[in-house]
Design a protein that fits this description.
Largest sheet: 9 strands, mixed
Radius of gyration: 22 Å
Shape: elongated
Mean pLDDT: 95
Distance between the termini: 45 Å
Helix content: 25-40%
CATH architecture of the largest domain: Alpha-Beta Barrel
Number of helices: 12
Bound molecules: ligand LLP
Strand content: 15-25%
Number of strands: 18
Order of helices and strands: HEHEHEHEHEHEEHEHEHEHEEHEEEEEEH
Low-confidence stretches: none
Length: about 400
């Protein structure tokens, strides 16, 4: 980073709190996924829900990615980024008929998460669909982000394949895509590989397929010393097992994956300023910041862990503290009993690996505006999203 892009100067220019993304790292991760999968044809999609900031998504699209979208807003964003409609997959989940009609008009393939939706899509005259199956093996860093298995609302249960075939026969719709997404944030590919085999067995019975999409979910090492996901081994295993499947199927199909977190998490940092430091009589120290779970909900919601650095005094003696936000709830905590350099009001802190599901899940709770988003692209630094003002926030109400 050049000095013009030092966190201190960025905060001075753009205010605190502040999200900053490093596009070089985003591109490197996008290339890493491509390099790991040798099977051709291969089409990665970016799960844009992880970070919908157009500047970030454009960097990934620039690496030849399509978009995995889950709402009309995400489809609109993808099309506005110039992504061809056939490279946008709309993975629906309880979509409305109006949303279905819009997606059809936009030329986007719908990935149906229920028999209900497949039937209605077929009856609307659509010729093609993708179907998301629940392969029974879920995984994920927390139960709230495990998206397969008996407890999840997602996908068509694998045992209902016969019904999918019946709808195909009765309506003439062709299931051209077979999809799964088993969960988010796994660092071990055991469940993923197992569910790939289940999904390939399902795919083998769908005669009109053009692609199989095995979803996203690759985790990143959030904790100090944690080992990274072994992408090279996963890529080699997946390429080999997909090749064997295509051989059995009798045709070379397109393989798709749809990572979100892996591409953007490590490239993002949430910078915040310490506003107060206080000690309770029992010795517990609270380091309070000018942001909270309104801007980064992952810790409160999933007990997630984010590394924290004190940029102002990195070498101060260590102190065990709770790092907390400025939202009026006791759950507004970024770290409990963490050893950090002793902080003082005014210090700047970095909450690391917050590029995925950080700003994407931010809210205006407590009527606090959203922070700005800055992208660093080599020597260039630019504002990707302006800081929201209180006036802008209040202007949405009908007074
Ligand atoms: N495909 C589908 C259909 C998905 O639902 C998701 C994520 C992905 C792909 C991308 O998963 P990834 O590669 O990012 O793991 N807010 C949570 C994560 C929720 C993930 C939801 N679906 C968090 O902060 O950890």
């Amino acid at each position: 980073m050049t000095s013009a892009a030092s966190p201190a100067s960025l905060i001075e220019l753009h205010g605190s709190p502040l999200y900053v993304y490093d596009l070089a790292l985003v591109r490197a991760r996008a290339q890493q996924v491509r390099a790991a999968i040798s099977w051709q044809p291969f089409q990665p999609l970016y799960a844009i829900k992880a970070n919908p900031c157009p500047a970030v998504a454009a960097a990934i699209v620039g690496e030849g990615y399509g978009i995995d979208a889950v709402s009309p807003g995400e489809v609109a964003l993808a099309l506005r980024l110039g992504v061809r409609p056939d490279l946008v997959l709309y993975t629906e989940n309880n979509m409305t008929d109006a949303e279905q009609a819009l997606a059809i008009a936009q030329g986007v393939l719908i990935n149906c998460g229920s028999l209900d939706r497949l039937e209605r899509l077929a009856r609307s005259g659509a010729k093609q669909a993708c179907v998301r199956f629940n392969p029974e093996f879920g995984d994920g860093a927390h139960e709230k982000i495990c998206t397969a298995g008996p407890l999840t609302k997602f996908g068509v249960h694998q045992s209902l394949l016969g019904e999918v075939r019946r709808i195909e026969r009765e309506t003439g719709i062709q299931v051209v895509g077979c999809h799964m997404h088993i969960g988010s944030g796994f660092l071990d590919a055991t469940a993923f590989s197992k569910s790939c085999e289940v999904i390939f067995a399902i795919a083998a019975q769908l005669p009109h397929l053009q692609f199989v999409d095995v979803g996203g979910g690759i985790g990143i090492p959030y904790r100090e010393g944690q080992a990274a996901f072994d992408l090279a081994t996963m890529g080699a295993t997946l390429s080999a097992s997909f090749a064997a499947f295509c051989h059995r199927y009798g045709r070379a199909l397109e393989l798709r994956v749809e990572p979100g977190r892996f591409l953007v998490a490590e490239a993002g940092t949430l910078y915040t300023t310490v506003t107060s430091v206080k000690s309770n009589p029992d010795g517990r120290v609270f380091v309070g910041c000018d942001t909270g779970f309104n801007h980064l909900v992952r810790v409160a919601m999933y007990d997630a862990y984010h590394r924290i650095s004190n940029l102002t005094r990195p070498h101060a003696p260590s102190q065990v503290v709770d790092v907390v936000g400025n939202i009026c709830e006791s759950g507004d905590v970024f770290a409990r009993q963490r050893a950090l350099p002793t902080a003082q009001p005014g210090d700047q802190l970095a909450l690391h690996d917050t590029g995925a599901y950080g700003m994407a899940m931010a809210s205006t709770y407590n009527t606090r505006p959203l922070p700005a988003e800055i992208v660093i692209d080599g020597p260039t630094v630019r504002v990707a999203r302006r800081r929201q003002t209180v006036d802008e926030l209040l202007a949405q109400y009908v007074w």
